[in-house]
Amino acid sequence: MTQTHEPLSDTAVALEAVRARYRAERDKRIRPDGTEQYAFVTEGKLSRYGADPWTPEVAERPARHDVVDLTIIGAGFGGLLAGAFARKAGIEKIRYIDVAGDFGGTWYWNRYPGLTCDVESYLYLPMLEEIGTKPSRKFAPGEEIRQHALAIAERFDLRRDTLFQTEVTSLRWNDDEERWEVETSRDDSFASRYVLISSGPFQRPKLPRIPGIESFEGHAFHTSRWDYAYTGGDHTGGLDGLADKRVAVVGTGATGLQVVPEVAKYAKELFVVQRTPSAIDVRGDAPTDDEWWNSLKPGWQRRRRDNWIDFVHGMGADENIVGGAWTDLATVRGMRRLVETGFASDPALTMELADYEKMEELRQRVVDLVDDSETAAALQPWYRQMCKRPGFSDHYLQVFNQPNVSLVDTDGRGIDSFTPEGFVVDGVEHQVDVIIFATGYELNFDAATRAGVDIRGRGGVSLTERWSDGMRTLHGWVAREFPNLLQMGLLQNAFSFNFTHVLEDQAEHIGAVLAESEHRGDVLIEPTEEAENEWVAVIHGQDTAGLEFQAECTPSYTNEEGKPSRAEAYTAGPTAFRQLLADWWANGGLEQVLTPKGATRA
Ligand code: NAP
């Protein structure tokens, strides 16, 4: 879209007004307790919220006391992709550990009705060509995605050695044997030449610490542990158990947007409890077109993914192959305008104007789709689009036209308290039979703590202590003094909304290093001090515009509830990061991470 974007006086006035409104909305939502406002489903009486509905029985198995080649902690897509590329690198004994009862990660836990991927399935589902899966729809249902995860496990024979329903309790490097010693909650105690952590950013479901939450006498559960025994039906719908129930869904983020339209179909009465409205763009789902699918040429997925990532996160693509709302984010519009004008205009203002225009469109969309003007006004988002994870739905907003659905807008404050019969907002008690918490997850990128265990490297050094002044890695996946400990994730690494794309790139990179390590046989994977220092300097030397942007935002998990700390992602984007790694390989970077056994890394 080509337009002129001179700050005309009326636009400037509107912009000033909107800035003031955004600030007021942010200030209204800032809470002194920040991230402390949440409790976790592992805590005390709340631990019932964390129980595994999919594999309720703990399967008996003998404890392991052996030696394996590679232990992978986390059996979601990251771990599966790492296992696939490790197999390709010739690694034989691969052992998985996960607290879940099977492979799938977030797709194991989340099976709520209405669940689909939010990024197009042709992009999101990794290894589509290799595995031969054909997604049924542009946005495939969660169960189909879970089945695809299982198919990857099958294809690469990753089920051979799995310790599910198991937590790692200790991870220690043995300096003499030069291998890891792993202990678990199921009395396993074994050795592993390599350990890879891929435990995902959203591990622990969270609940708001609202007074009285434990006193509610009705039924309650978190969306990541959907209770079909109570609601009836399954992931395809049929929630007939709700036909005579008054239901509250708390939370209107990406999960709430998918759950609410399904629950609205079945509940006698539905209260949607909102603190901050999502900014909701068009989704545009459709069944997979057979003719198009059959016309795809080998290598299509890589080309499609690269095009999307270049278009959404950078400026490397001229043609928009994928289309859809992700490729029309405010940031994408702004960046493209900067390119079109040769960066001649004021970059910050250009981005802000593109954002203003986009958010006006999304606010208008609410008015167009919601009949009641008061409800529509309450559903309008007042912040810049990237302040929150962008939302997409073609059904959510229309739900508020149904007679059985009410919006309980808390005007940024959230629920005041729970009572035995329901919840209170603004002094008014709403009595319900069941509360469904779509209140999200703790965001935890930090490998030092997210494995849930204090990791000890060379000489017993603790990863938590070593990183007490900040994370230190080379390219996010290896750290000095922690040989053969490989980490997957988004910190000090590339970030993309198509998370599986960056995970697959990481897995491929790690697999290639593993292959070389195995080939040489007498080396460990550990970066030089110089390489690690240089990379940390790159990360810390990045401009802080993102941080300043987040500080102006309404609170959410993306800005640590209004108190953003230093960004650890590689902000130049995934395309630049991939080029950086390609150059690293071409320029002998491998020597920075392969160190002779028996030596302490200089
Ligand atoms: P979320 O984005 O963290 O949303 C939590 C919701 O709970 C927010 O609307 C929040 O309001 C609300 N909330 C929290 N405390 C409250 C209180 N005291 N009273 C009332 N409301 C309260 O969680 P999510 O929707 O589960 O999504 C988390 C992330 O998972 C997403 O951003 C996305 O990355 C991923 N996800 C992806 C998909 C997909 O791709 N299909 C689907 C679901 C989730 P505030 O906004 O005011 O904090």
From TrEMBL:
The keyword Flavoprotein applies. One of its GO terms (molecular function) is flavin adenine dinucleotide binding. Its cofactor is FAD. The keyword Lipoprotein does not apply. Keywords: FAD, Flavoprotein, Monooxygenase, NADP, Oxidoreductase. It comes from the Bacteria. Pfam families: FMO-like, NAD_binding_8. Belongs to the FAD-binding monooxygenase family. This is Predicted flavoprotein CzcO associated with the cation diffusion facilitator CzcD.
